[in-house]
TrEMBL record:
Residues 12-219 form the Exonuclease domain. Keywords: Exonuclease, Hydrolase, Nuclease. It holds the Pfam family RNase_T. It comes from Heligmosomoides polygyrus. InterPro entries: 3-5_Exoribonuclease, ERI-1_3'hExo-like, Ribonucl_H, RNaseH-like_sf, RNaseH_sf. Gene3D superfamilies: Ribonuclease H-like superfamily/Ribonuclease H (3.30.420.10). PANTHER family: 3'-5' EXONUCLEASE ERI1-RELATED, 3'-5' EXORIBONUCLEASE 1-RELATED. This is Exonuclease domain-containing protein. It comes from the Eukaryota. The keyword Nuclease applies. The keyword Hydrolase applies. GO terms for molecular function: 3'-5'-RNA exonuclease activity; nucleic acid binding.
Length: 241
């Protein structure tokens, strides 16, 4: 499908998808922490990804990841954990396992990662452009980042206060509701870029969906705001989506 000649409101869309500490069938207390921080810089003139920011993050409140979390996200705690899993799961394809060797131990904490991200934004010239974050849902910037930053008394940049929820964009564009990433992939006959719940793979996948919607002539606009999500954060605190 050829791109429609529709002008967008932004120069860049920053597609973001956090992964966070989690456990199965219950809340992780006292709160979740971001463990993967991936962002793709999508140029709306070419609809190509021009740059990535990708940082694994060390949790400090619950520093040991649950087995459910490592299986869900593919993030391995450290090299010893990886070797133990390889020994235990002898049928695991080793070439696939090497994708899982990213570690959270010895990685920056969330406050350090946020500083690095701001430096990346400046280096990429994003702060001097018209840009917006894109997420698949309101959880990442409406719940997760505000919750952790408030609990850890970290001041976050105001540019995180507004975003585009691509599910809402699709609904506005089509008049139909998509439950999540899998629904949108099915609707647009797209394949996931890798492993579901790998943050960087989810980001690449959301980029493809964002582009597919734009190709149908949709003009993106802000449809999510931190100011509108105070109640959402209260309800969904410690819930992974």
């Amino acid at each position: 499908m050829d791109l429609m000649p529709v002008a967008q409101n932004f120069d860049y869309l920053l597609v973001l998808d956090f992964e966070a500490t989690c456990t199965e069938n219950e809340k992780i207390l006292p709160y979740q922490e971001i463990i993967e921080f991936p962002v793709a810089k999508l140029d709306v003139k070419s609809w190509k990804i021009s740059s990535y920011f990708h940082q694994y993050v060390r949790p400090t409140v619950n520093p040991i990841l649950t087995s459910f979390c490592t299986h869900l996200t593919g993030i391995i705690q450290d090299s010893d954990s990886l070797n133990t899993r390889l020994a235990r799961e002898s049928n695991l394809n080793r070439s696939k396992a090497y994708i899982l060797q990213e570690m959270v131990d010895n990685q920056p904490t969330i406050d350090e990662a946020l500083v690095s991200f701001d430096e990346w934004m400046r280096k990429e010239g994003v702060l001097d452009s018209k840009f917006a974050f894109v997420t698949c849902g309101d959880w990442d910037l409406g719940v997760m980042l505000p919750s952790e930053s408030e609990n850890k008394r970290i001041q976050i940049q105001s540019y995180f206060n507004n975003w585009i929820n691509v599910k809402k964009s699709y609904c506005e564009h089509s008049g139909s509701f998509a439950r999540g990433l899998r629904d949108l992939l099915r609707i647009y006959n797209l394949q996931h870029a890798g492993r579901l719940h790998s943050g960087i793979d989810d980001v690449k996948t959301i980029c493809a969906i964002t582009t597919a919607i734009a190709k149908e002539g949709y003009v993106y606009r802000i449809n999510g705001s931190r100011n509108d999500d105070l109640e959402r954060r209260r309800i969904f605190k410690n819930v992974t989506v």
